[in-house]
Amino acid sequence: MRRGFLLNKSLSDEGKSGRQPVSSASKPLNKETERGVHGEAREPRATAEVARVPIPAIHIPAIPHHELIAAALTLGTQITLHVVHLPLPPSDLAYAEHTTTCILLSGQAPQILASPGFPRDPARPRHAHLYDIRPVPALPAPEQINTEVELGLFATSSLEPGDLILSERPLLLTLRALPAGSAPGTSADDILERAAEAMPARERRAFLALRNCKTHGDPRLSRARGIVATNALGIGSLPGHAGDCAVVCERTCRANHSCSPNAVARWDLPSFSVELRARRPVRAGEELTISYLPDLTLPRAARVDLLRASYAFTCACTACALSGAARTRSDARRALLARQRSLGYDDARFAGWLREGAGERVVAACESVMALIDEEGCVEDGVWAVGLHWLCRAYCALGRDEEARACARRATGLARAFTGGDGGWARVAEDPRMTEN
Ligand SMILES: [Zn+2]
What we know:
Elements: H1 9-17, E1 81-85, E2 101-105, H2 108-113, E3 131-135, E4 151-155, E5 164-168, E6 172-175, H3 188-198, H4 201-208, H5 223-231, E7 233-238, E8 241-248, E9 256-257, E10 263-268, E11 273-278, E12 287-290, H6 300-311, H7 324-343, H8 347-355, H9 359-376, H10 384-397, H11 401-419, H12 425-430
Parallel strand pairs: 2-6, 9-12
Antiparallel strand pairs: 1-2, 3-4, 4-12, 5-11, 6-8, 7-8, 10-11
Helix pairs in contact: 3-5, 7-9, 9-10, 10-11
The structure holds zinc ion (ZN).
């Protein structure tokens, strides 16, 4: 889940052609798999009677991005929008609790309430104070247009990838495309203003206190629409309507942007909540950042332009602050990550290498891509899942069990960060020798 309404056709197109789930096809055990792929001696693997553990192939669907709400889309005159409060049971996570005001299609709320597992309590962090919200020490750049005091989220203890930092129900949930009506009361601005007025007093205060970077950019936008355009996080579609939705949260939306973000926000429908999780190791005191961009592999110039146009700030993150040759190398690494994402790690080629006993080539190829991720601090969701899948398969085929275990542990944390669950990786980490290959 990323913040923003940036149009990115290429990303959604890429989802159709490039980000395919990797194959988890497994081969039956035979004599060759009792030895490493280079024929080196190794301990016998588990017998055929014992259930094998598949090495997970997690597919993280790309959420398409759109231009600003209500730019041009109409939903049809026969469709009416409703501003409703979903009757969610209270959570014992006091800080996570909100009344969520929803802008939904007529008849959509009952379909959400009837979705499997709904409603569940939001997930609970290991303790409630893993972060602070406080002013960011320095503004990112002198040319920043918005001069408000900027707040940010800061870790109060060290975090590992996958750790849950906070979970909260949103203040507002809205369809991303609202009617572009011209009659009084039917425009996106009017609908969003109406939703803000319908919020309970505490939630309305929290909503109106969020940053509005559109104040100085487009005076035609209402305050509510400016706040939504500045803060909304895309969550994909919900039951009852194929179009995308977005949410605005009191705390998660305080997370600032980095092109090498250390956290990721994800939507959990059964608990109707947003989870903020670490995607990289985080030190106590470090600012927690997410990505506002549709694609972190864009070169610096494109990233800076998009962020300036959409959010009125000049990115000064660790990646954007590079200059000269270091900047060129950073752009090149991100271009390689983009290429790797589009190839989907070339499953057929890697499977062929493993069959031919060239597991070391698979290891070298996958380790080099994971090194790109580490050097950039850019845990790209379309790259790591495939890379760790093939790396773990190759380690297992070579009998390099400790490296397979470390690989599976890393994948466990990242799967938790991006999907909320371990995706089957924790079982692989327990005993890599029990895996299929
Ligand atoms: Zn940046």
